[in-house]
Amino acid sequence: MRDGRNGAAVEKGGRPMILLHLFISYLKIGFFGFGGGYAMLSLIQNEVVMQHGWMTNAEFADIVAVSQITPGPIAVNSATYVGYTVGSQAGGLWMGLLGALTATFAVCLPALTLMLLITRFFLKLRNNPIVEGAMQGMRPVVIGMIASAALLLISPHGSAPGERNFIDAWSWLLFGGVFVGSWRKVNPIVLIVLSAAAGILIYY
Amino acid sequence: MQPLFTLFWSFFKIGLFTFGGGYAMIPLIRREVIDRRNWIAERDFLDLLTLAQSAPGPISLNTSVFVGYKMRGYAGAAASILGVVVPSFVIILLIALLFADIRYNPVVDAAFKGMRPAVVALIIVPVISLARGMHPALYAVIALTAAAVRYLGWSPVWILIGAAAAGMLHALYRLPKKEAPTNKKCGTDETERPSRKEGDR
Fold this sequence. Notes:
A: 204 residues, mainly alpha, flat, disordered N terminus, B: 201 residues, 2 domains, globular
């Protein structure tokens, strides 16, 4: 299954170059990934599939599917996965680990540096009326953005292909249960674990 | 020594249980950072989310950097972001190395069928509880933003910039009107320029 990939376009220029390309690609993804989540998908796809030919579209779809069943931001997940895959193709296990580390570090770097700048700026100027004005303007908009993410997850055609969030009455029952639990401040980790267990009982 | 590890551990838990995109971690972060540790005041929680939205990168990374820096400076930021990233890094590596076929596993599939609607509930509850603290006139802004992002496909970046500009103008001119103008959509293009000039000075 993996062997098919070796026929695909492999970048020239040896191992250090591959790490460099991984680093630059994921730096870009981390830097321009405003809006997070699925907004990043086309950006990642463009870098990984179109620009570098590191994998095919089908393999990319596999990564998206894996990202959906693993915790963490999809940008970070894809960085680790793509970095490992590209590295190990070029030079085995250790090169794969190095590739995963490189890409993951690169994707986090813009968030780390820019967020540090914003944090320092904000902590220093939080009482400035202009900064407070900007915050006042943005607060309701941010709530609206979170609401739009929820809308996207509810609508049947909105979520990723073949991965609908609500498939039957059980889904809505679980939704209602978790809603009430979360509203009453039950530990969200408990709610996630319980809903996973319920899913296994219901669907397996 | 201890607080650095506590930061790492708190965000490790958050990173480990953030399924279904960044927003699902909002209840988790609220519990860890506000209810359990008191690192951030309840009323500052929305500001934390707002700042996290205004930087590129996943919201979970951005919140971890803010909280970490606020508590322990640069070392705290590093410990926190490491905590968020390490769980997904290790899990993805294990999958890539050993369990490439895990997503075809029927037990995993069933568990995720149960978790997906749960994640939606975990995103909706904070929307309601955060909106409840706002002036009712701003409900319209919340609804319009949600509709513009979801149904018109407007970029969150430009909406945020427009809203920030509108808020700054409002603060500058101190209009007798109570709220910033809700026409931030039309305002995006016009109000954006002056705010940039201010930045240049």
